[in-house]
Amino acid sequence: MNAKLATRFARNARQISGTEALDNDTLRALVPSIFAEEAHDSRSQRYVYVPTIELVDGLRKEGWAPFFAAQSKPRDISRMAHTKHMLRLRRTDDIRKAEAAEVIIVNSHDGTSAYQMFAGMLRFVCTNGMICGDQFQEVRVQHKGNIQDEIIEGAYTIAKDFPRIIDQTEAMKGTTLTGAEQRLFGEAALIARYGDDESPLRPDQVIAPRRSADVGGSVWNTFNVIQENVIRGGLHGSKRNEEGRIRRSTTRPINGIDQNVSLNRAMWTLAEGMQRLKAAA
């Protein structure tokens, strides 16, 4: 197995990624739920069980290979072997590219998730994965019927959107935001992250790049900076508690699969909206 692997354990998730295809031994060690031998005993007889690894093996035969995998940590420990998991797959020739379109898979074997597939991209400069917004294809396959054929077909359905995703990315790279527009983007992203709760961060913090490669005012640069700062956490913030006192804290990374997916899609949609507004001005 290649040495360029990044393995991460968090309070509610574990994940592994690499710049080469992940083999089954590596996947089994870090994300064992994709190898579950049967569905969780809470599932009825109508539930069609197909191990995720069989579907991954089927996609491998079609030229797709996993290079990222994550597994959640359920509150109920009895669900650990069947819990929700996420994999990112690329065409074999695209795995080492700095940017490439992907098929993202989310599944579980305990009834907490249908089989879901999304289009996405990843920048290897920071292994900062993004998932495209609601206007791109999403495939959901329930655990019934001929699930394996539907999933293989779903991968090709997702792939049809790749040219449009790449075109949109190039448009974002060619669209420049003012400082005020960047801060507005950051403010919207914080609302997506914290909802009605008071954000511990200021928009200026989430639009501040972590590396020189991300300096610049394009929609693309701004989106990637905000996405990394929101998803990865580690920023120092503060907000008032119920007694009105200032409480300082450090933001946590987003490790939960559901929140990661929803935030990524929300921020991609925000980026597209900013790009369209600038193009129409």
Q: What are the main properties of this structure?
A:
281 residues, alpha+beta, 2 domains, 8-stranded antiparallel β-sheet, two-stranded antiparallel ribbon, 23% strand, globular, disordered N terminus, DUF945 domain-containing protein
Give the arrangement of secondary structure elements.
Elements: E1 5-10, E2 13-18, H1 24-30, H2 52-61, E3 64-72, E4 85-91, E5 99-107, E6 115-123, E7 128-131, E8 138-141, H3 147-159, H4 162-173, H5 179-194, H6 203-206, H7 219-232, E9 236-240, E10 246-250, H8 257-280
Antiparallel strand pairs: 1-2, 2-3, 3-4, 4-5, 5-6, 6-7, 6-8, 9-10
Mean of residue pLDDT? 81
Largest sheet: 8 strands, antiparallel
* Residue share in β-strands: 15-25%
Radius of gyration: 19 Å
- What string, H for helix and E for strand, traces the elements in order? EEHHEEEEEEHHHHHEEH
Class from helix and strand fractions: alpha+beta
**How many H/I helices?**
8
Number of domains: 2
What's the total count of β strands? 10
Protein name: DUF945 domain-containing protein
Organism: Sphingomonas prati
Short overview:
The protein is an alpha+beta fold.
Protein described:
This is DUF945 domain-containing protein. The protein is an alpha+beta fold and 281 residues long. The protein has two domains: 5-162, no CATH class; 174-280, no CATH class. Helix content is 36%, strand content 23%. The protein has eight helices and ten strands. It has helices at 24-30, 52-61, 147-159, 162-173, 179-194, 203-206, 219-232, 257-280; strands at residues 5-10, 13-18, 64-72, 85-91, 99-107, 115-123, 128-131, 138-141, 236-240, 246-250. Strands 1, 2, 3, 4, 5, 6, 7 and 8 form an eight-stranded antiparallel beta sheet that branches.
